[in-house]
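Fold it.
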Amino acid sequence: DFPAAKHFSTSDTTTYYYATIGEQTWRLNNVAEGPSGKTYRNAEAMSNVFGRYYSYPEAVAICESLSNSEIEWKLPSLEDWQTLETYIKGQPEHGNSVVAALMGNATFNNITMWEYWPSVGDITNATGFSAMPVGYTNVKTSLFDGISEYAVFWTSTEADRASEANAVYLICDQPDIYVGHLHKDSFGASVRCIKK
């Protein structure tokens, strides 16, 4: 469900929706392009459901590869995410929770994916961003964790340590976006692209 979508674009394997949120244009579903990235529990059928989990180098490359003559895409920076958060906080109709305005009211096998927490309140998906709590993976061991608890997205912003980059978390019981520093090569996170 992509209520804010105004347009869509199609790759070889996936239809990607995108929309303008504030002054930014975001893709509204997780990137699902192979052969890079891992699928949930290594099941290829899950690629178009949850998207794929990418290492940091794969995340940077995959957004650039999705650019076409219509739109150039990039992996969003930490500043891009902060701009999105500031925009949401400035819209009274989006309520007091940034995360609720980004959460998609998703179900999987008839089970609601996002846990309800009073600190976040009702899921509104007011932005149409439609984030799903698909957690993360260790791309070296294929350990998957965090399903129904949080969504994790790479940013293009590198951390102080050369081996790490920043990622943002949308956590089921936290109303604001959380930032973490993750290992570029072993951590697998979801990817959303933003217009350059």
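Helices lie at 47-50, 56-65, 78-89, 98-102.
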